[in-house]
Amino acid sequence: MPIEDVAAEALRLLEHRGLLRDLRTVSSATDCWVDLGGRRTLLLCSNNYLGLANHPTLVAAAADAAARWGVGAGASRLISGSLALHHQLETEIASWKRAEAAVLFNSGYHANVGTIAALVGEGDAIFSDALNHASIIDGCRLSRARVVVYPHNDVNALESELARVPARHRLIVTDSVFSMDGDMAPLREICELAERYDAWVMVDEAHATGVLGPTGAGLVEQLGLHERVAVQMGTLGKALGCFGAFVAARRDVVRLLVNRARSLVFTTALPPPVVGAALAAVRLVRAEPERRARLQANAQALHAALRRMGAPVPAAPSHILPVVLGNEARTMECSARLLERGVWVQGIRPPTVPPGTARLRATVMATHSEDDLRFAASAFASVFCEEAHERS
Questions:
Q1: 318: annotated active-site residue
Q2: The pTM of the whole model exceeds 0.70
Q3: Helices vs. strands in the chain: H and E counts, helices first
Q4: Euclidean distance between CA atoms 101 and 91, whole angstroms
Q5: Last residue of a domain, one of 287, 319, 339
Q6: Catalytic site residue from 55, 110, 238, 319
Q7: Given 55, 110, 207, 368, which residue is catalytic?
């Protein structure tokens, strides 16, 4: 059968299940409001949490780096693509994360897949939270280690598995802030279990980097656990507004990744404009805690507004705010109705989330105004009211 026929049949099946997705084109810079299909639309589904993606300081840093270093590294890091600019950013990140060293990856996916597979293998065991990101799941699969998935944030179940499963080396891996639910891992308890059962802890700080902690270094910083967490991963493309990722750890761990992490070894290094912008972003985030304060205030404001109208949201506010509706068709219909009202909140369906937990995933930015959030709340209220009227 021709490949295009196989593809067409797979697409028909996805459409029949209500799971077919397409790309939407944004015709403006990523900001609080974007041009979507020629219409000014309030953006509530971006990971640009601090609103830095088009910040003048970062734009200027990218332009300066391009002028000095060019637009591409030209090779992998282990050939001739390891520029002084890369090392400068890695040194800044290591200082920020209070680690001995750090190394850049081309994305959070590259970082998790490459790091996990480089650190553990056959004869080892990985203990992974059930709601960890897909990149962690794929890294576990590629490692060939035994993978034990424990129920989400259930430290009692994790301890039972650590006591039950023998292994040469043990790695506990978890998101710090979970991307689809906005809740946080019980990192203190996880570190205690790791010490009790001789395991290493790896934390994916993708959605906490820039957001949590006194200097924005993440949940590990907020809880003072940098000495107890062996591997800290973070991204440059969410709150920092750029692209790429990093791993911070002991110096020899980082050296091992440089030699073993295939997603680092066998790819061209990050381009200089991206690295220059990311360096400016890290420095700005460390120096401006008020951005994080505004983000948290906006998260609390939208959370409170949705709770007042009876929306099914978590008890605690977060910059990631899921409105879990359960039914995929209803979720996508509500997302479409919000968009008709000028508010872009993405509907999230399987396989991104488990079946029966489809949701509207709203994400706020530090740069959203009070008027923006009132506009969003009004749109949500209108959609829910319309739904209630149709059901009555």
A1: no
A2: yes
A3: 14, 13
A4: 7
A5: 287
A6: 238
A7: 207
